[in-house]
Amino acid sequence: MRADQSLFVIVVGCGRLGVYLADHLSRQGHSVVVVDANHTAFANLSTEYSGFKVEGDATELAVLKQAKINEADVVVGATHNDNVNLMIAQIARKVFNVPKVMARILEPQREELCHTLGIVTICPTTLAGDGILASIRGFSTPAQEGADPCTP
Description:
This protein has helices at 16-27, 61-66, 82-95, 111-116, 124-138; strands spanning 8-12, 31-36, 52-55, 74-77, 100-104, 120-122. The longest helix is centred in the last third of the chain and has 15 residues, at 124-138. The protein is globular, with a radius of gyration of 20 Å. It is an alpha/beta fold and 152 residues long. It has a six-stranded parallel beta sheet, with helices on both faces. The protein starts with 7 loop residues before the first strand and ends in a 14-residue tail after the last helix.
């Protein structure tokens, strides 16, 4: 799909990540459905959010069908539970043939398995760890730079 076309995106989980994604995608003109088991979570969406909300357990096929997963271009598992995100991603990929499936996972050890299943993963642990390691590699002490470490 071209960048100038609207996508139909399902975001499962209406926590910080889900709200962030849903709000941004909605503002960009995409059709968005957010699914969450807790109806109070929808209160965190911005007043500009123009998409739909589906309350229910997204691991149940009936809830995914209510969200119109069979029409989705993209499904994102953004709950706080790796197992739920991976289950939803696998259902989206294998049962409904969704073209782009992504899952947030917190355990870096699961990334390779996801990739073999054709699931794009975002792992905050890996992203933060890599960022910190890069920062440490780029850090040099005054002694390493040839300066006198005793001079303020």
